Structures are given as structure tokens and as C-alpha cells.
Amino acid sequence: MRAVEAFTLSLAVAFNFFEPAKAELKNCTCSAVYSFGDSLTDNGNGIATFPDQFIDSETNPNGFNFPHHAADRYCDGRLLVDYVAFGMGRKPNYAILRSIAADFTYGANFAVAGATARNNTEWVQETGFSSPFSLNVQVSWLERYKVRLQFYYAQVELNSTTRGVVYQSLPASDSLNTSLYFVYAGFQDYFFPMYYQTMTPTEALDIVDAVVDSIVAAIQRIYAFGARSIMIVNLPPMGCLPALLTLYADEDSEKYDTYGCLDSPNKVSNSHNTLLESRVADLRHNYTNATFYYADYYSVYRDVLKSPTLYGM
Ligand SMILES: *[C@@H]1O[C@H](CO)[C@@H](O)[C@H](O)[C@H]1NC(C)=O
Ligand SMILES: *[C@@H]1O[C@H](CO)[C@@H](O)[C@H](O)[C@H]1NC(C)=O
Ligand SMILES: *[C@@H]1O[C@H](CO)[C@@H](O)[C@H](O)[C@H]1NC(C)=O
Ligand SMILES: *[C@@H]1O[C@H](CO)[C@@H](O)[C@H](O)[C@H]1NC(C)=O
Ligand SMILES: *[C@@H]1O[C@H](CO)[C@@H](O)[C@H](O)[C@H]1NC(C)=O
Ligand SMILES: *[C@@H]1O[C@H](CO)[C@@H](O)[C@H](O)[C@H]1NC(C)=O
User: Fold this and answer.
1) Which stretch is the leader sequence (predicted)?
2) What is the number of domains present in the chain?
């Protein structure tokens, strides 16, 4: 089993911990999965928009272990969002911009590689792996998607033979408020400036408020749209990522934690996650008729580092 596959599998197992009181994970009743974010969740929107820039998502090792085909994902196997979909006994959702053979029966994926949580209004293509389709744009796509769906449903209701003409594997008409909305954003905002060294980890702490505000604003719009089950995923310890370990390598062992990860990028993850978690608590308090799941990816990642053999590594 390849390392990435094992890691992602363990995440699926770890979803048990979101409801600590129950030993058995109850069967999920969500109709479909709608997802938002960046390359950690994108399954085709990046390559659909900028094929040259994001061609890597179709070449080895990406897609290597994905069942049946190269998968337009920045991963050698399944993404976290795929495990959520497979865990519910469903097919993965499709990239919203996929123009050929898309199947939206079980939802749609609005995440785009290179997308920030913060609005990206001054986008220029030259700035490496970045995309103009930040979280606010993705939520606008969701709103537009609903308009089109309602148009199709109305047409089919008027004349059922039009179904054959307009039908393209769409979700059930009453499923939008029984679906799971999966928001895993913010990674691009911090990681890429640190990777391109246009921002130090200490400077990255200064944008945490703005990043979390953007995520919360997106969630509020998704809620207003009609979502009643929203899963918000926190960020992994970025000080453990090989790219940052290499770029910010330091002779001073004091700069590392017990797992050999760098403290300063980890502080960014911690600061982001602490604020995000408290905002999710506010959301629960403000919107009592929706369920907000705080998915603790950070702790799962640490758990794998702590007990790698437990996860087949
Ligand atoms: C989940 O669904 C499967 C298949 O329908 C069923 O066999 C299983 O008992 C269900 N588990 C729970 C906890 O409801
Ligand atoms: C981001 O863009 C949305 C519109 O898509 C706008 O409503 C919002 O105010 C903007 N946020 C900021 C912080 O500028
Ligand atoms: C229903 O739609 C089909 C296909 O567009 C068309 O041929 C048919 O005339 C329509 N029927 C009615 C009653 O409008
Ligand atoms: C979901 O929306 C449908 C209309 O599309 C409505 O009939 C239903 O009551 C709503 N369900 C919930 C749980 O809000
Ligand atoms: C919750 O409601 C309060 C009071 O209306 C508001 O100030 C705050 O921004 C809201 N927070 C979230 C996360 O919705
Ligand atoms: C959910 O709560 C909001 C605000 O508390 C309210 O405006 C809305 O009508 C409620 N929706 C349902 C379906 O109960």
C-alpha cells in the first residue's frame, strides 16, 4: 500500500471520532456531496480551466492509484472528499466544470487547484499555482448551479419528454438541503506564499483572521443557500510538509518538534485551526437548525506521525 493511500484511508477511519460518543459510525443519509476548496479537494476544475498550468494532475504519480483512470486530482489515489463520498456508499462527486460525461447525481465539486479562501481579485496567471476562482467565486457557482437545476426540473415537470433532451444525471430535485457541504479551504492562502517565499511563517500569522473570515463568510452563504449539513475541515500541521521542511531547514533543533516538524509553519496551522474551531462554535450557536461538523484533520495527521505502523507505514 502506498503511503498516501494508507494515510487517506486512515482519515476515513478517523471520521469515527467526529461523534466520539458512538462506537459505530452510523450510515450517512446525505443525498449528495458538494465540496469547496483548493487542490486538496479539486478533482478536475483546475485542469478544466488552465489545462497547461494544471496538467500535472493527470500525470504519474497523480491518479496512479485511483480506480479505473487518471483522475484529475493532485493525489496518487483518492482525496479526502472521495473517502467521504465512498464512505457513504456513493460515487465521487464530479468537478462542476467537467464538460464531458459529468454525473451530478451525487453532487458536484466546486474546489479549484490554486484557489484561496480569501477573494482573489488581482489574479495574474504568472504567479505560479494560483487560480482566480477563490472561495467566493465557488459559492457563486453553487448558487448558479441551483438556478440551472430549478430550470431543468421545471421544464421536466411541464413536459416529461424534455427529460431526454435536457437530462444530464442530475441530483434529486429536493436533495439540496439534505446534502453534505464540505469546505476545506485556506491551505492555498498560507502554503503557497511560504513555498514561494513571498511570506515567512511569522508573516503568515497576520493573514489568519482574513482567511478564517473568508471561510466563515462562504459558509454563511452556503447556509443561506439551504445547506443544513456542513463539514468544515481544518488544516494539517504545515511544518510537517516535505516542501517546507526543505525550504526552511534549520540547524537549530529547537525549531523542530518531537516528530521532526518545523514549529513556525505549525504555528500557522494551529492559529488558523483554533480560530476556525471557535467560529464553527459561533455558527452552531447562530444557526441552530443546521449541523456544523468540525473535521479535525490536524489531529489525524499527528496521530499518523505518532503511530505510523498502526496505519501501515
Ligand atoms: C448501514 O447500512 C448497511 C447496508 O444497508 C447495513 O447492513 C448496516 O446494518 C447499516 N449500519 C447501521 C449502523 O445502520
Ligand atoms: C469577497 O467577494 C464577495 C463577492 O463575491 C463580497 O461579497 C465580499 O464582500 C468580498 N470580501 C472581501 C473581504 O472583500
Ligand atoms: C414535449 O417536448 C417534446 C421534446 O421537446 C416535444 O416534441 C413535444 O411536442 C412536447 N410536448 C408538449 C405537450 O409540449
Ligand atoms: C428541503 O427543501 C424542500 C424544497 O426543495 C422542502 O420541501 C423541504 O421541506 C426542505 N427540507 C428541509 C429539511 O428543510
Ligand atoms: C453570530 O451572530 C453574532 C450576532 O449576530 C454575529 O456577531 C457573529 O458574527 C455571528 N457569527 C457567525 C460565525 O455566524
Ligand atoms: C433556520 O433558522 C433560521 C435562523 O434561525 C431561520 O431564518 C430559518 O427559517 C430556519 N429554517 C428552517 C428550515 O427551520
Assistant:
1) 1-23
2) 1
Expressed in angstroms and rounded, the spacing between residue 291 Cα and the centre of ligand 3 is 42
Beta pairing partners, 295: 233
> Residue with the nearest Cα to atom 8 of ligand 4?
174
| Parent domain of 213 | 3-311
Give the pTM.
0.88
Q: How many of the other CB atoms lie within 10 Å of CB of 222?
A: 21
Q: CATH no. for residue 259?
A: 3.40.50
Enclosing H/E stretch for 95: strand 94-95
Q: Could you read off the pLDDT of 32-83 as tens digits, one per residue? A: 999 999 999 999 999 999 998 888 888 888 888 887 777 899 998 899 999 9
The set of residues, in sequence order, having a beta carbon less than 8 Å from that of 25 and lying 6+ positions away, is 15, 16, 19
